[in-house]
Amino acid sequence: MNKGNDGYTPNILREILAKCHPHEFCMKIFTYALYANPNRSYEELCKLHEDLVPHKTFGSKAKKMIKFSYKDLPREHKTCLLYLAIFPQGQNIKRSTLIGRWVTEGLITKQDWATAVHHAEQCFDTLIERGLLFPDEIGAAGKVKSCILGDQVHGFITKVASKEHILDARLSDLWARHFSIFSGLRLRASDGIDNFVHKLPKYSPQLPLLKVLDLEGTECFEKNHYLRDICNKILLLKYLSLRRTNVRYLPSEINNLHELEVLDIRQTMVPERATRDVLLLKLRRFLANRVDPNPGLNDKSPHFPVQIPSKIEKMENLEVLSSVKASGDGRELKEIKNLWQLRKLGVVIEDRVIHLTRLLQAISDLKDCLRSLSVTISCNTRTKSILSSKEGHAIDVHRWLRQTPKHLQNLSINGVTEKVQLLEPLAKGSDELAKVTLAGTVLKQDDLMVLAVLPKLHCVRLRSKAYNESKLTFKEEEFQQLKYFIVEGNMTETDIE
User: Fold this and answer.
1) CA-CA distance, 174 to 198, in Å (whole number)?
2) Is the overall model pTM greater than 0.70, yes or no?
3) Is 102 a domain residue?
4) pLDDT, tens digit (0-9, with 9 covering 90-100), for 27-49
5) Domain range spanning residue 125?
6) Would 82 be classed as within a structural domain?
């Protein structure tokens, strides 16, 4: 950092912090910004010091500090931060939602989707590290899963976003988060999202620029034709979220959305087989699971998978395929191996030779691209007893899994199979594996030793019935990088040494 004629940098830093006192928020924003870029000029610091008049209010000082940090951000990071002005003040905003929307809105201008997502992830982390976003939900491995925009930052970016015309004056602030920016949509607060969906033909002239339709948490699908209208009228959609809506079916017209890159139908009541005919060639993220439409009194609405699209091999742009279930013959599992860009796979299979061998073969073929893998073995006692008598009890895992994914970072196994122990072959030699989650695997001490030597493993989560012994012992030289060891469910009776 440069030294000026009037004194030394350490003095000016102390004086700036003194003027921030007693406002912790201002001090943090300043120190975070300085840490991100220590090469500030002495003149810039002097200007900030002069602007921080002692009798100024907290709001005024906070605005100066936010502006100080904001001005130094890369252009794309500024735009992504301003984009958050569409969300209501204090709302919990999911990391995955922001990443998907930033990319589909074209705010991250990179040549390919994977690179854009990578830069969007870096942008999110930067905004957290600078204190411009507050972490809300933090995952088991320390990753920020969602954030909240503080009052001071929200007020600052709302003014800047309006000035730079990122916020559309014709669209009510109340509904802005549901639509893409620059959509040209006219929707007053009194109109409501329900009315927009119900009267979609009325808005047809305003729809050509609409890329994002995020209806998460709304209850506007009491009639089946409403979703069909969306698929017929908003043909340039790139992002469609129906998460936690009351949608109960998926029309064949969903395939009219030829530009769709993100489809989110999580926590809906879409039937299991409704996804069989989905064929969206540009789709990047297929986020799915369904809730029981008739849960019991003590049921906490567990999530169930949907079926893998029957022509999954044609959707070769997919990078995320979550909570999907193989059909009886497991043919789709075999076709998944053609998805050369697949980074995250969450799949439910049965304890059958045909399912296990085809899944292992697909995992082997995707060894260069898979980063996250979640395997759930469904348990049907009656079916299991019949199949076990027909299919035998073991398979040669190395015949089908020729090589483990070399870049796998996250592995989750839920359930147990009589035909093969999945943890050892999937984890062995995975030098980049950082997080492992196990549930219902009924493992023993020796089974976990494959994890003890992994060089980058920093989080292990053992859920209900993951471990089946009364004691778990760590030796001093094992689990060298482990930072988080989380025990849940009935594992509490296990002694850990």
Assistant:
1) 18
2) yes
3) yes
4) 999 999 999 988 888 888 988 88
5) 77-156
6) yes
